[in-house]
């Protein structure tokens, strides 16, 4: 990294957690990820989820077709686990590099998770196989139960599901995705090993639950896991500022049409691709931790996945960057995170 904070040169980052959707939305949003990132882990929770090698190959083709030559990145595909997933399908997909990892959505935990897993014991043979072949398990870590408060879903998941799962499969590589709590930070730090890491989103680093209820309700800040108390936000910020290499970038950019964000069924998800990377830069600067920016954005992820670190670099300059206001879709639109706001860092073209 350059000594002068007016300009930063770092290895080109990767985004280890991205929702691109398909068809028209995919075509419109893809360039924002391609603008900043070299590789991106693509979430499989389409309406018709990516549950097989066959579907994954077709989806990857669709992604590549939607890409513009100027905004290219490598999509890394994942398999959506259901109670019918077979070890054979996963093993084949992993060895043929069709899948980089498999995603566990607890049943009805978030967008398009109706086919998610009801009980971990339903996928024991799949997890055993993943542990054996070294295939990472990406977890949406929330315990879904009407008796559990929405703000406690993540910590209950760690106690009731993650801890027993890790005891049963100690060498299974796990990413606890989009962590939002102090308990998750502590859990990952305590189990300092090569088998467990966590990704952190820019919105959970920048905001807390007060922001969701300021000047009325803010449907655009509704995501899952939901924004938590300020003490949790602080713990996440401290975790990245500590330079601990068990944490890395996963933006969880998740576009939804405006009508679906504000309708009577408001979808969870924040579309942050136009500003995610520059938001991370801002946060590291605020935390006086710019020296760890490159590790978080470009090194810790590939190390976890046993992949090479990118060769390209990107240059950031301390120049105001106005975040895109909206993307139009005929009569509809998608409004990005920090819409119309100004960040202090820009990409040097
Ligand atoms: O807020 C979220 N949106 N959280 C998720 O886990 C899924 C995502 C989506 O797909 O919209
Ligand atoms: Zn997600």
Automatic annotation (TrEMBL):
The keyword Zinc applies. Pathway: Pyrimidine metabolism; UMP biosynthesis via de novo pathway; (S)-dihydroorotate from bicarbonate: step 3/3. Its cofactor is Zn(2+). Substrate binds at residues 19-21, 45, 140, 224, 256, 268. Zn(2+) 1 binds at residues 17, 19, 103, 252. The active site is at 252. InterPro entries: Amidohydro-rel (IPR006680), DHOdimr (IPR004721), Dihydroorotase_CS (IPR002195), Metal_Hydrolase (IPR032466). Catalyzes the reversible cyclization of carbamoyl aspartate to dihydroorotate. This is Dihydroorotase.
